[in-house]
TrEMBL record:
Residues 103-375 form the NADH:quinone oxidoreductase/Mrp antiporter transmembrane domain. It holds the Pfam family Proton_antipo_M. It comes from Psoroptes ovis. GO terms for biological process: ATP synthesis coupled electron transport; electron transport coupled proton transport. Core subunit of the mitochondrial membrane respiratory chain NADH dehydrogenase (Complex I) that is believed to belong to the minimal assembly required for catalysis. Complex I functions in the transfer of electrons from NADH to the respiratory chain. The immediate electron acceptor for the enzyme is believed to be ubiquinone. It catalyses: a ubiquinone + NADH + 5 H(+)(in) = a ubiquinol + NAD(+) + 4 H(+)(out). This is NADH:ubiquinone reductase (H(+)-translocating). It is a multi-pass membrane protein. GO terms for molecular function: NADH dehydrogenase (ubiquinone) activity; NADH dehydrogenase activity. Its EC number is 7.1.1.2.
Length: 539
């Protein structure tokens, strides 16, 4: 209940700040660190209040859902429930520092807090798979921390640690390191392999991580400091396009149901980053907020279905749920929002971004790849619907499962927001000169039609299923290559010249030297004994 109260207060406060264009800064006394000014400040503006309003709302829904989730899951003990809730609360606290901080020191505090707490949540289940996924997630986030630490060097060179004075800096490498740090947390190429691996966490964690906290932290920093990153916007545009295309292709041929939803998150993150790189940071911000609602609803409804089949994630088993009314309702609405179906929550932001890109882009290839990636979004959304609720089941056709109404009490709140609030937010928060035009509406409908055509042509393509499922090349490029390379280096060093000059050499040395020491000390022991005996006799 506390999260919902905080959400309501911040919503009214954000509306006030938006219309009156005011920013409240809570500045503490500046601290001098090595003759540099490190002021600790908190910023309350429209972006931070509006975003944390919905973070609090979704966190409250996830906490209620977690209560039912842990009561059903037999693996959760009482101590596990307390630990799970505490870690989730730390997750929200870390997000608070990241969202409201206007000091680079507090940003780093919230950033590292999200990385550490996400590692604890991913390894919550005590098995080897969760540990491997947690290590991948943790190490990738540490790469982003390294980029932020490098940006600290340039901030120290400029003499300021507060974001108020960052506009005075003119270092290209500083902008580059900030951008690289942000895209590691948002799982952009080539740091995308950790996002499907993080699905090893419990479903409430996946709902919170993939909707409004961990993966959107990097996007939020790009929005917060968009006035600094104009020099790297073109590079950011290329990276986001590659991420959208890659995630869309993999989502169309993946068989793990939960990983398909994770790939959809990756695709939408690329969509947000692309909007920011085009200069439409407000549209990207609104899409990030809208995406948090329907993606958390999608994850929670998916988790409820997984409970009914004892945690199985095979997409072919999910087709046994075509008789589950509430599951079908919430899941279908989330998928419609995901593809940008007209007058759903995702439509109001996606169609504006699509229209603005097609009108303003001067590069035909970038526009083509962007439309193609949006077409992939429609295709895998239709695939989710067909896999989940097809009447002609693919596997386990003798199983018709019931559903627990307690799971869908919190999801109902997200469902109501998804169908009622899109027009309201776009009417009040968008500039007056941004209105829907007929070509923009037609472009959105064309993308929907192209996505449907692509789904019909790719559904039976087994070659693409085996080639593009499970993100085959990306984990190999990120982790397998480095581990295999280092193992080859260690093998060559340990079993060839390094072994001869280290282990074998020391072995031969001690093998020949130890008998010499034994004989030396034994002869000395006899000599010392005889010497003392002679002294005693002569005395």
């Amino acid at each position: 209940m506390t999260f919902f109260i905080i959400s309501g207060v911040l919503l009214f406060f954000s509306v006030y700040l938006f219309f009156y264009n005011s920013v409240v800064l809570n500045l503490f006394l500046p601290v001098l660190v090595f003759s540099s000014e490190m002021s600790i400040s908190l910023c309350f503006d429209f972006v931070s209040c509006f975003f944390f309003c919905f973070v609090s709302f979704i966190s409250g829904v996830v906490f209620i859902y977690s209560k039912y989730y842990m009561n059903v899951d037999k693996n959760f003990q009482n101590s596990d429930q307390i630990r799970f809730m505490c870690i989730l609360f730390l997750f929200v606290i870390s997000m608070f520092f990241l969202v409201f901080s206007f000091s680079w020191f507090l940003v780093m505090l919230g950033w590292d807090g999200l990385g550490v707490v996400s590692f604890l949540l991913v390894i919550f289940y005590n098995d080897s798979k969760s540990l491997d996924s947690g290590v991948i997630t943790f190490l990738t986030n540490r790469v982003g921390d390294c980029f932020f630490i490098l940006s600290f060097m340039f901030m120290y060179y400029s003499g300021f640690f507060s974001s108020v004075y960052l506009v005075n800096t003119s270092f290209f490498l500083f902008y580059l390191f900030v951008m690289l740090g942000a895209i590691t947390k948002s799982a952009q190429m080539p740091f995308s392999a950790w996002l499907p691996a993080a699905m090893a966490a419990p479903t409430p964690v996946s709902s919170l991580v993939h909707s409004s906290t961990l993966v959107t932290a990097g996007v939020f920093l790009l929005i917060r400091f968009n006035y600094l990153l104009s020099e790297v916007f073109y590079l950011l545009m290329i990276i986001s396009l590659l991420t959208m295309s890659m995630a869309g292709i993999f989502a169309n041929f993946e068989m793990d149901f939960k990983k398909i939803v994770a790939m959809s998150t990756l695709s939408q993150l690329g969509f947000m980053v692309f909007s920011i790189s085009c200069g439409n940071w407000l549209l990207g911000f609104l899409h990030m907020v809208f995406h948090a609602f329907f993606k958390s609803s999608l994850f929670l409804s998916t988790g409820s279905l997984m409970h009914l089949i004892q945690g199985d994630q095979d997409s072919r088993v999910f087709s046994s749920f075509y008789m589950s009314f509430f599951s079908k309702l919430f899941f279908t609405m989330s998928c419609l929002c995901l593809m940008g179906f007209p007058f759903s929550l995702g439509f109001y932001s996606k169609d504006f971004i699509l229209g603005s890109v097609l009108h303003s882009s001067e590069n035909l290839m970038i526009s083509f790849l962007f439309v193609l990636s949006c077409m992939f979004t429609v295709s895998y959304s239709i695939r989710l619907l067909m896999l989940g609720f097809s009447k002609y089941v693919l596997f386990n056709s003798f199983l018709i499962f019931g559903e627990d109404k307690n799971f869908f009490m919190p999801v109902t709140l997200l469902f109501l927001v998804s169908i009622l609030c899109g027009n309201f937010f776009m009417y009040y928060f968008l500039p007056q000169n941004m209105v829907f035009s007929f070509p923009e509406l037609i472009s959105g409908m064309v993308v929907l039609l192209m996505g449907l055509i692509f789904y019909n042509t790719s559904v039976n393509s087994y070659f693409f299923v085996f080639s593009f499922s499970s993100m085959n090349f990306l984990p190999l490029m990120n982790f397998k290559f480095s581990s295999n390379f280092m193992s080859c280096i260690f093998y060559e060093k340990e079993h060839t010249w390094n072994e001869i000059f280290t282990a074998k050499l020391s072995e031969n040395f001690f093998k020949n030297f130890i008998p010499f020491l034994k004989s030396f000390f034994f002869s000395n022991f006899i000599f010392i004994g005889v010497f003392f005996m002679m002294i005693i006799i002569f005395i």
